[in-house]
Every structure is written in C-alpha cells, then in structure tokens.
C-alpha cells in the first residue's frame, strides 16, 4: 500500500507539487498522466525516496519514507523496481552486469541463479543475446527495455515506471503493457507515468491526472474519457486521429 499525503515540492520559485494526495492499493496498476514539465517524474522520485518533499508524507507498507532511517529506506527501496525516464543504466557495465547488479545487492542468489534470472528477464523484454553489450551500443528503446528488465529482476513488490514505452514501436509497446499486466497477476503493484493514452487505457485500473500541482482527476480509464480537461481532450483527439489510419 502506498499513501501519498499532502505532498509539496518547489524548486526555487517554481511550485511543482502543491498538495498531492492519493492512495494505491496492492496489485493495482495506476497510471499518472499530465503534460510535459508538470511534475510527474518529480512525484515518482519522491515516492521512491530519491527526492525529499518540502512538506507532506509518503508511506509505503506503513513506513513513512520521508522520515524513516536510512536502514528502513534501503529496506523499502528493495521492494521497489524503478525505471528512470532516461533509463539511467550504469554506462561502464554491460547489460548483464546492469541487470545482475540488483540481484547481487538484494538477493542471496548464486552466480548460476543470477545468470538464469538475467537471461529470463532479457527474454521477457525481447532482448535475448545482448548481455555482453554496453549501454552506448544500445538504441533508446533497447536501453529502456534493459532498465525494465533490471527493475523486475529481483521480484520487487512495486514497480514504478517513468514512461516505460517511450521510444518503442507499437508492437513492443503492446508487449511492455502486457508485461505490466502480467506483473499485476503475480501480485505486483505498478505506477506508470506515460503520455500514451492508449497504453493508459490498456493497463490502468486507475488514472491520476496531475495538473497545476494537484491531482485533479483520480478515477477509472472509462471515467477520464468524459472528464472536462483540455489536455485529456487533446490526448484523446490525437490518439483518435491515428486510429483513423489504423483501420
Ligand atoms: N532537480 C531539479 N531541480 C530543479 N528543477 C527541477 C528538478 N527536477 C525537476 N525540476 C523541475 O520540476 C518541473 C517538473 O519536472 P518533471 O521532470 O517532474 O516533469 P514531467 O512531468 O516528468 O515532464 P515530462 O513529461 O517532460 O517528463 C519542471 O519545471 C522541472 O524543470
Ligand atoms: Mg518526466
């Protein structure tokens, strides 16, 4: 269970988050929508404990991560797989080493078990056989999928993905969406930030819309279709334009 209570964050004179409140139950897939620069990545980073809010709290499994000890924060972080917007792979490590990193840190797996799991996760994201490559040898979409494989490798309870399908082709987008739905079936709770309304419809149990520092919509994918908001109307309108060509 994740509880975000009255979270505020500003950078200089810019108020980015101005009283954010929402809860996420276990096994839910919650999608966060909002225009570029509105604060979605900042919100995810606060939830994972990479940024501190100026006010308010984030509770994960009843631990207030904004106030807890470093030990507790590390313990909570082990429950979370995080996919950064820019993938954020370790440049000097191979794909194998990037994915094995969390397994070595957070599990008691043997070398053979780690090898098995790395290969298994690469298969899940359709990247078999690239273990030996370094991040500079990967395309943008390959980096993103490697980051996703790294995030799911150690079986976290929560997966937080910042634009997991950015830069992917439509077949791969569908595959990643299916993966997120499969994670839910295994009991994993996900928060996904995306600009892709079709993906939001495909995977979300609930959608949050971030606007002007606040969550102004918190409801089902069906309900958001009828929500009066310019940004949502544009997202839907442009996705329908492409549907015309899909037929
Ligand atoms: N570390 C930081 N220092 C100063 N300002 C920051 C920092 N991180 C984010 N910001 C500012 O906070 C605002 C929200 O940024 P954020 O990255 O959360 O946007 P976003 O909604 O994820 O946008 P996008 O969809 O383009 O990724 C932006 O104005 C950004 O410049
Ligand atoms: Mg962002």
Q: What would the average pLDDT be, to the nearest integer?
A: 91
The CATH superfamily name of the largest domain is P-loop containing nucleotide triphosphate hydrolases
Report the principal-axis shape: globular
The CATH architecture of the largest domain can be given as 3-Layer(aba) Sandwich
For this structure, the CATH topology of the largest domain is Rossmann fold
- CATH C-level of the largest domain: Alpha Beta
Poorly predicted runs are: none
Amount of beta strand: 15-25%
Oligomer classification: single chain
Bound molecules: adenosine-5'-triphosphate, magnesium ion
What is the radius of gyration computed over CA atoms, rounded to a whole number of angstroms?
18 Å
Summing up helix and strand content along with how strands pair, one would put the structural category as alpha/beta
Main sheet attributes: strand count, strand direction, barrel closure: 6 strands, mixed
**Residues in helix, %:** 40-55%
Strand order of the largest sheet: 6-7-8-3-9-10
Ends distance: 41 Å
N-to-C series of helices and strands? EEEHEEHEHHHEHEHEEHH
Query: How many separate domains?
Result: 2
């Amino acid at each position: 269970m994740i509880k975000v209570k009255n979270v505020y964050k500003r950078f200089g004179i810019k108020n980015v988050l101005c009283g954010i409140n929402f809860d996420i139950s276990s096994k839910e897939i919650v999608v966060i929508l909002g225009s570029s620069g509105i604060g979605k990545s900042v919100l995810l980073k606060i939830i994972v404990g990479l940024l501190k809010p100026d006010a308010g709290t984030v509770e994960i499994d009843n631990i207030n991560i904004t106030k807890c000890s470093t030990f507790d924060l590390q313990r909570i972080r082990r429950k979370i797989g995080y996919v950064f917007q820019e993938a954020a792979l370790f440049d000097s490590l191979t794909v194998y080493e990037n994915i094995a990193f969390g397994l070595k840190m957070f599990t008691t797996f043997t070398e053979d078990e780690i090898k098995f799991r790395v290969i298994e996760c690469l298969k899940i994201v359709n990247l078999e056989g690239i273990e030996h490559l370094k991040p500079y040898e990967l395309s943008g979409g390959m980096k993103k999928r490697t980051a996703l494989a790294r995030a799911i490798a150690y079986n976290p309870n929560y997966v937080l993905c910042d634009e997991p399908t950015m830069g992917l082709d439509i077949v791969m987008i569908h595959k990643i969406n299916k993966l997120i739905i499969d994670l839910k079936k295994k009991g994993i709770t996900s928060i996904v930030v995306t600009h892709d309304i079709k993906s939001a419809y495909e995977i979300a149990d609930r959608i949050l819309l971030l606007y002007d520092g606040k969550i102004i919509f918190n409801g089902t994918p069906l309900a958001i279709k009828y929500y009066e908001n310019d940004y949502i109307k544009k997202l839907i309108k442009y996705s329908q334009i492409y549907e015309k060509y899909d037929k």
